[in-house]
Amino acid sequence: MTHLKVFTVSFFIIFLISGCNQEAEKNKPNIVFFFVDDMGWQDTSVPFHTETTKLNKQYYTPNMEQLAREGVKFTQAYASALCSPSRISLMTGMNAARHRVTSWTLRKDVSPDQQNKNIQAPDWNVNGLSAEPNQPRTVYTQTLPQLLKKAGYKTIHAGKAHFGAKDTSGENPLNLGFDVNIAGHAAGGPGSYWAKYNFSADWRSPGNHIWDVPGLEKYHGTDIYLTEALTLEANKAISKAVEEKKPFYLYMSHYAIHAPWEKDNRFYKKYIDAGLSEFDATYASMLEGMDKSLGDIQANLIRLGVDENTVIVFMSDNGAPKQAARNLPLRGHKISPYEGGTRVPMMVKWPGITKPETVNNQYVIIEDIFPSFLEMAGLKEEAGKSIDGISFLPLLAKKGQYPIDRPLYWHFPNTYDQPPYSSVRKGDWKLIYHHTDRKIEVFNLKEDLGEQTDLSETNAAKTKELANLLTEHLIATKAQMPTDKISGKLVEYPIDAFMNKTE
Ligand code: CA
């Protein structure tokens, strides 16, 4: 073969390969993860319960209703009971017991844990997710956006990050695999939702700047609401990715509806007119502002002609806070171990894969986002390496196996706002182990969604089975247990507490 021929053949092969790559990238779906902060299971006009509740009638979220008509509604989706643990789980595929970011992060080496006369919280990963190995009190691993980026995705972060503490590498989403960062940093809430106050808490607490939302200076002094500013910027980033002909991952992580509760004036009045209290009307207005964002992003996808190749996943990062209306029939609220703390709204629309207006009652959990998104992006092998999360794609496509009786776990060895606990759900059963007094509660969620009847005494066999399962998980993940201040020893595992009581 002459040199010319070799050159021509090689060129042709390279052309074929690069052509195939382009084709594969073209077929990769865009992924929009629409992630709401502190939104309870019933904080929407879409009923996630088997019946329509008072809150479903109180709130108005028409774009969520539209998404429910177009996609799959998951009625039993779970997150951790508070912000950072959920966020680190979705970024890493690890359960909170394993990544050890078990409470919320903000200041380097400073834990928000409160003094408790009985219990000392462990030295948990107070500095959050790190972009570098071997940093004190952090977890370090390949992140979801890093893996998606390697697969050709443009990775866009918009809104609340809250991955790592201030003055650490993890505070900046650009260090964790995102190509674009719109308004994300260490803090888990905005100083203010109002641009007239420059999104800062300074107007109500002079000199307080740690919560100042970064990067939206062009809106300062205007009348815009934070949710709207984030949506405009996220839509611009989507348009740019489409222009660049790149598949994109948009992590649309709204600050709403986390505190501070500040009314969204576009929607506030109608709720006051409907008779809601000032707080409830404020909360409702923030929810509707968030819902408008969902509609605006979908409208942009349609305008750009990419909606048919874009997956939309809607979720919240924990239950409604205790200040908000109770999410009945669920018991408890944000940070508590009961369903009101952990059960969240979730919906998925994947054109060509999901069927419109479907309801899925299988339970899933926040760490499943990691392998599920990797599998959506064609990274099935990487998805399989997910440590704790399990891909929920079989539930969308009705293809492949999903372990329907898998256990789910929560672990909060901290002393912030709520007493510490670990818990497990398997099938219809749930066990909560309270660290302070070693009390064990067992509920049958199918019969008793409101967790009113503790069956731990009447069903000792189930209690023992779940206590064993939870203990095995805590050991396998090297979970940190708090210390009992009276005995000076680590709080024992649930199976030991169970055995001590029955002896
Ligand atoms: Ca949250």
State the gist of this model:
The protein is of the alpha/beta class and 503 residues long. It is 31% helix and 16% strand.
Entry keywords:
503 residues; alpha/beta; Alkaline Phosphatase, subunit A; Arylsulfatase, C-terminal domain; 2 domains; 8-stranded mixed β-sheet; 4-stranded antiparallel β-sheet; 15 helices; disordered N terminus; binds calcium ion
Write the topology of this structure:
Blueprint: H1 3-27, E1 30-36, H2 54-58, H3 62-70, E2 72-78, H4 83-92, H5 96-99, E3 119-120, E4 129-130, E5 139-140, H6 144-150, E6 154-159, E7 180-182, H7 226-243, E8 248-253, H8 268-273, H9 278-303, E9 310-316, H10 339-342, E10 343-349, E11 358-365, H11 369-376, H12 380-384, H13 393-397, E12 407-412, E13 421-426, E14 429-434, E15 440-444, H14 460-476, E16 483-484, H15 494-502
Parallel strand pairs: 1-8, 1-9, 2-11, 4-5, 6-7, 6-8
Antiparallel strand pairs: 2-10, 3-16, 9-10, 12-13, 13-14, 14-15
Calcium ion binds next to loops.
- How many helices in DSSP terms? 15
Bound molecules: calcium ion
CA gyration radius, whole angstroms = 23 Å
Straight-line N-to-C gap: 85 Å
Taken from the alpha-carbon principal axes, the silhouette is globular
Low-confidence parts: 1-24
Kindly name the structural category: alpha/beta
CATH architecture classification name of the largest domain = 3-Layer(aba) Sandwich
Task: Tell me the number of strands.
Answer: 16
**What's the pLDDT, averaged over the residues?**
95
The CATH superfamily of the largest domain is known as: Alkaline Phosphatase, subunit A
Largest sheet: 8 strands, mixed
**Biggest β-sheet: strands ordered side by side in the sheet:** 7-6-8-1-9-10-2-11
| Number of structural domains | 2
**CATH topology call of the largest domain:** Alkaline Phosphatase, subunit A
- CATH class value of the largest domain: Alpha Beta
**Helical percent range?**
25-40%
Measured by DSSP, the beta-strand proportion falls in 15-25%
